[in-house]
Amino acid sequence: MPSARFASAHTPIAFALVAVVAIVVFIVPSAYAGLLTVIGLYSLITLGLNVFMGYTGQVSLGQAAFYGIGAYAAALLSTRLGISPWFAMLAGASAAATVAYALSFVVLRLRENLLALGTLALGIVVAVIFANWEFVGGTSGIKGIPGFAIGRFTFDVRAYAIFAWLLVACAMFFVANIVRSSYGRALVAIAAGELGAQTLGVSGERLKRQIFVLSAALAGIAGAVYASYVSYIDPSSFGFLLSVQLVLMSVIGGLRTLWGAIVGATVVVGLSHILQSAIPALIAQVQKIVPWFPSAHGDFESFFFGVLLIAMLILVPRGIMGRAESGAVAGVRA
Question: Fewer CB in a 10 Å sphere around the end CB: N or C, the chain?
């Protein structure tokens, strides 16, 4: 578990970060404000994933499915029934949590690699449903999703960035209190060994189910906000690559750290932005000199993130913030 010093500082620093974002978005171009929004939403998803993977010792490759369920539920309610995006956001979180709860009785019976494969299958099944069910738009997706508004003020890209990071701060407050409590210590006991935890009277299945549902609800909230932010969604936004990226965010930042969610999301979104813009241009220049050099066409981004994930698991298994917090605790003890 994080040291008391780090744990007690989560909430005030998180809300201070919201204030920083509120200032930065009015200084940087709107495109960068959009990146901050995406980083905030992915941080929210990864925060739930960190608690589930880091504090229960489980592996999930289906977090993108709950992100998509939240987005589609909110989009359908707001476009077809005219429900306010605010209530649609709560409905999206509830839909993702409900699906997670129903599936937990089957999925969480699996262990280790089988659990990873089970959640991966969940993501594939949900993506296929999104793409083939005409009721939710099929491959055409859902258009004209209304944005958030307060009175006559409709959220712009800057307001979405601030709102996304406010959600992150609130989630950080909630999750930090969980991991600091006896509940959090019970989760760590499960990660250390479920059989040993049971001898101490800890119900591993019940706690894992609760955290699984919590992580899904956070992903559902992020999906609902994302749907309103972009005003259009389709199945391609919630595919396997996103699940890999979310796991990569957790691994880079540190599985059993809350700040690792933000660090990991920032690194991966930043790298993705560079890969999509700078790398193709760089390769095009290289091809002018070396015509046989491979092109940037194809899923080179998936290849890069796959290699990076393997490298992180081998070289820095505790992640960036995991190493930082370990160093801080060692310094305190010294």
Answer: C
